[in-house]
Amino acid sequence: MALRYHGIAQFIGKAIALMGFCATLATSVVAQDSPSRWAIGPFTRPVDQPIIVPRPESKFQDPIQHTPVHWEALHTFNPAAVVRGDKVMVLYRAEDDSGAMQIGMHTSRLGLAESSDGIHFSRLPEPVFYPAEDSQKSREWPGGVEDPRIVEAPDGTYVLAYTQWNRETYTIGISTSPDLIHWTKHGPALGETGTYASLAYKSASIVTKLDQGRLVAARIHNKFWMYWGEVQVRVATSTDLIHWTPVETTPGKPLVVLEHRPRHFDSGFPEVGPPAILTSRGIVLLYNGKNAEAAKDPYPALGAGAYSVGQALFDQDHPSRLLERLDRPSLYPEKSYERTGQYAAGTTFGEGLVLFHRNWFLYYGTADSFVGVATAPAPRSETANSR
What we know:
Number of helices: 4
Distance between the termini: 46 Å
Strand content: 35-45%
Shape: globular
């Protein structure tokens, strides 16, 4: 057994070293949209390598199996991010070495990392959020807790929206914490009974606003708002950030606010990304667009099935009203570590966005394997009170 983990560690070490010297493997150039007055960007990569990678030596006493597990042995990816004090805190999805060797068949837990510059991270040796013998076990075991997004509530509480995956179905789970370490699980965002109790749904982007340099959940018409879903992006409202009600066209039919576009980078489908931001020009939503498969009219400048980050603008007074949408991705798979990994089609899958040191920091998953970061300058008006 020891030899097995030693071999994995050697393999990962060599792979990361190689990434540092490899030229970009992209076979085509994708032009980014010129930054619109409302859009964030352009994004650049401050380092040419992943910033969080697996650690096969990390161990954790699993509360369900009652045995030690190598909880971040295989993949570390799809991160949430928030500024706490003078540091960026990242919650990242980590997969252990259990289950079948295919996507979604390992157990996922969330690790916590911190950084004083937004690029170089130290992390805790054990996960801070995971399946346990609690009220959500049937929804989270054995698949785990996946793909977090996090916001700060007006009272300083942290609100986590994540995917509950039991290897049969999935839902958006909501959890809260005073310190990012101790968590209270509240169950599915759309409730455990009623119209949406049996719906399979994931990915949630709660609308935020800048408050003294931090992104804090925003009220619009005395309600909090959340974009949610993949394939068809919808919208929901809440009075407490825990219990959510879909905006509907008719009873039981959620309003769709974003769909796929043929021959665009999101020709397969859109899926929401990090928390959206309420600005003077509207609500900026960063989302992940999947390119269609080869037989379904994909975006020709990207590989079939690749995930890129796009941006959409919604009305600040009517969050379900789409105003504008960029035609080209703001970040797409270019680097070797973004195109080689568990998801070979390539991903730059954005889930964490913070304003830090007068720049936007976008944290994203690379090929379902590592965590990457991209940055963009923020206008002076946005950074006046930032750290």
